[in-house]
Amino acid sequence: MHWADAANSRPLSGYAFGVHGRELLEQHRRAFCANDMVAVWSAHSPVNDWADFVERSVRALAGWIEEQA
Asked: Of these four, 48, 49, 53, 54, which has the most CB atoms within 10 Å of its CB?
């Protein structure tokens, strides 16, 4: 949530959002790998649009969290 609030306070370009988003995913990789519904990335599965990938991954994780509540 902190990351999303910071991104909202200073809008980022699509490229910058992708870079920061990729860093977020890397820092919290275990959370995103916790279930098979969240896309997992690797060097063997290139991502063409990181901004889109990050958004889909975060939404999938949020949905999974809500389902577990």
From this structure: 54
The packing angle between helices 2-9 and 14-27, to 10°, is 170
8 A C-beta contact, residue 68 and residue 60: no
Distance CA 49, CA 58 (A): 14
* Regions of the chain where pLDDT drops below 50: none
pTM above 0.85, yes or no: no
Tell me how far apart the alpha carbons of residues 49 and 10 are, in angstroms, rounded to a whole number.
21
